Amino acid sequence: MGNETIGSIVRTKGNGISSVPPTATVFDAVAMMAEKGLAAVLVMKSDVLVGILSVKDYGREVVLKDRSSKDVRVEEIMTTPVITTTPDRTVGTELVVMTSKSIRHLPVLANGRVVGVVSMADLARSLVSEQAFTIDELRKYVGQK
Description:
Helix content: 40-55%
Number of domains: 1
Shape: elongated
Structural class: alpha+beta
Number of helices: 6
């Protein structure tokens, strides 16, 4: 189970990547995340992935420490190094990684370049779809006997 590749998910959902530079304010990053309905944003310096900023980082490092998001730079609170994956990895394998590392977003790199991001929800949808297909095939098989 979970044999679909990460590359297949990226192709299906599209490779739209939302990013901010490390020098951006946390306020600007969170505003972008809110506008786009995102729970995390990549931190890119030129075309290089240098970190990831999540709502969890914001809550832990800004809200709970009573800091002003307009005074804090993304590079001060981003998660780095970033755990990444590649298009050839499977949903099942990466689900184990995400669960064991307690992460919900996984940047996808091909030849060292970011080509997309998959979320825990993307992987869950893939598994549900795969299970539904298997159930349908089993029903067809049983119905033929």
